[in-house]
Specification:
This protein has 591 residues and is of the alpha/beta class. 38% of the residues lie in helices and 19% in strands. The protein folds into 3 domains: 3-212, Rossmann fold, CATH 3.40.50; 219-452, Rossmann fold, CATH 3.40.50.300; 522-589, no CATH class.
């Protein structure tokens, strides 16, 4: 083969392919606008889960195929997202190197570009500038607001990519920037933020949560708020008690919030049990691989929460910590596996794709609008019609305000990061843990949990309306599925299940007095099996229902309804071991 034929073969091997997945209407609209304008800079604001990565790579493939650019550089916030971008690009026929470091000069042969991080660009901006100008390059700045995390990052991005041929900026929500800290390649409009002058980003194309919800691109979100009474000892040695939802002052609310999140109390295991119950119902109602995420404030809490998950559910949680070198592999394993719950510290907050995750438990002190929007975005990515997402959260004003903002007509605009000394820390609003110095110190004593309400459409539904909400037994399998239950009915069922969870969670401690155990109701003890037996039977029933549904082409929910008709009794989540065994045998006869 001559040199010309070899070059042609290499070009064919590297030529990008068009994605086999049809583009969504908003992606087609954004591409059409871009190609009509052919701009040097283009900012797309699209709600988390809408498909920004697919849009960006489709655009990159078109520009490469038309030879308008010859290289693609993607800049993203974290190392895990480097792998995710590279995998997505590979599916589009674009070879991007996710492992290229600053120690390597040229872009590796056999690739059409690489994926890097904002921190890596800040390390050697001139190196990246050389790579971006040696060939006509499209630079994709993912979650571009991160270029404003520090003044040096923005300066480095401008130095590295200021002379690139094309720049595409992506973000999940509009953002504000201080006048003296403009993010490069972003246009701004004058704005006022909390009485201070500022700038708000101006997108070239915007696709918000409401539009995505109407297009069934994202799942509708149900926010289930849990209150409870917290008791703690302050630094003066006084014992204080307050309700999460009726704390009064901001300081007392923060202390009650911190106490509720303490692993030694009852609030955490109660909400984890409710979360696990919700995952079970989703798996019985058409999402057989449904999973949940627990967000923790720090690594110590994350490890403690993972232990509680094991005791409450009988199954180990996937523990994902930011300093774990295997974190990316764990995220990938969880995303493609069958585990029910992952516990993480800020690792699954932005851009990470876990489509089967439909339940989120907010057990963290973080409350910035950015983190809230991005974290909730991890459970709203829709795969099929009639899927819904549930977020369990403490019934405190800062979080309820953020939840309500997702349903407002206007786009929620992220404020700039606070940097002044003495500013209230939105990221860590709770009191820091105090050092042991022989003096009285703050100490969490106990906290219980109670279902407070479901937030929907700006209204809090408590499940305690003017009269009882009548729901047919078969409808309980569809807890929270839009179109089958109203928000009030959803609240009624959550409230009822909350009472059941209260019975199931024992108030006794282990010998060290630190951890609570989950026990089944007494009737199950005389049914010939432990709660672990019941949990395994429920999982086996779900697997058998999936096999029957596959064989008969009937929906999972229909099989569950038929099963309860032939083997009467309560839903699987509260059925006795004997009933579960009978249902298992019935399913086996259907195969």
């Amino acid at each position: 083969m001559g040199p010309d034929m070899g070059s042609a073969a290499r070009a064919e091997a590297l030529s990008p392919q068009t994605s086999s997945r049809p583009l969504r209407a908003w992606q087609q609209g954004a591409l059409g606008q871009y190609e009509e304008q052919s701009p040097k800079d283009f900012l797309v604001t699209a709600t988390p889960g809408a498909g920004k990565t697919t849009f960006a790579l489709t655009l990159a493939a078109r520009l490469l195929s038309r030879r308008e650019v010859a290289r693609v550089i993607v800049v993203c916030p974290t190392d895990h997202l480097r792998l995710q971008w590279a995998d997505a690009a590979d599916q589009m026929g674009i070879v991007l190197d996710p492992g290229l470091t600053n120690a390597v000069g040229p872009v590796r042969a056999g690739t059409q570009g690489y994926v890097t991080t904002y921190a890596q660009v800040a390390g050697k901006p001139m190196l990246h500038a050389a790579r971006a100008t040696s060939l006509k390059t499209l630079v994709i700045l993912d979650e571009v607001h991160h270029a404003g995390d520090g003044l040096s990052w923005g300066e480095a991005a401008e130095e590295a990519f200021g002379r690139a041929a094309r720049r595409l900026c992506l973000t999940g929500t509009p953002f504000r920037t201080k006048a003296d800290e403009r993010i490069p390649f972003v246009r701004y409009d004058e704005d006022s933020f909390e009485g201070q002058g500022g700038l708000v980003s101006r997108a070239d194309f915007t696709y918000g949560y409401k539009e995505a919800l109407a297009d069934s691109v994202v799942r509708p979100v149900v926010f289930a708020a849990y209150t409870g009474t917290s008791r703690w000892r302050n630094s003066a040695g006084e014992v204080v008690a307050a309700s999460l939802s009726e704390a009064g002052t901001k300081s007392v609310e923060m202390q009650a919030w911190r106490t509720a999140l303490d692993p030694k109390g009852q609030w955490v295991p109660h909400v984890i049990a409710a979360m696990d119950d919700r995952i079970t119902h989703l798996r019985e109602s058409g999402m057989p691989d449904a999973a949940g995420l627990i967000l923790a404030s720090d690594q110590d809490d994350a490890r403690a929460y993972a232990k509680i998950v094991r005791r409450v559910t009988g199954k180990a949680a996937e523990l994902i910590l930011s300093d774990d070198p295997k974190a990316s592999k764990k995220i990938e394993r969880f995303a493609t596996g069958s585990a029910r719950i992952a516990v993480c510290v800020r690792m699954i907050s932005e851009g990470v794709d876990v489509p089967r995750a439909a339940v989120l438990a907010w057990m963290t002190s973080y409350r910035t609008p950015l983190f809230f929007a991005q974290a909730v975005g991890r459970v709203v990515r829709s795969r099929a019609p009639h899927e819904s997402a549930t977020v369990f959260l403490p019934a405190v004003r800062p979080l309820l305000s953020l939840a309500a903002s997702m349903e407002e007509e206007r786009n929620h605009v992220m404020p700039p990061p606070k940097t002044e000394v003495g500013d209230e820390l939105d990221l860590e609003p709770l009191p820091p843990k105090e050092k042991e110095d022989g003096l009285p110190h703050w100490e969490a004593l106990e906290a219980d949990a109670r279902f407070a309400h479901v937030l929907h459409g700006g209204t809090a539904h408590t499940g305690e309306g003017t009269g009882p909400v009548v729901v047919a037994p078969e409808d309980e399998e569809f807890l929270g599925i839009p179109g089958l239950l109203t928000p009030a009915q959803t609240a009624e069922l959550l409230s009822k299940r909350d009472d059941e969870l209260r019975v199931r969670i024992a108030a006794s401690h282990r010998a060290d007095g630190e951890d609570f155990l989950l026990v089944e109701e007494l009737p199950d003890v005389e049914s010939g099996g432990s709660w672990r037996d019941a949990a395994e039977l429920r999982r086996e029933i779900n697997r058998l229902v999936s096999r029957v549904a596959s064989r008969t082409s009937q929906p999972h929910a229909v099989i569950h309804t038929q099963l309860r008709a032939t083997v009467p009794g309560p839903p699987s989540a509260s059925a006795s071991v004997d009933v579960l065994r009978a249902r298992r045998e019935r399913l086996r006869t259907m195969l």
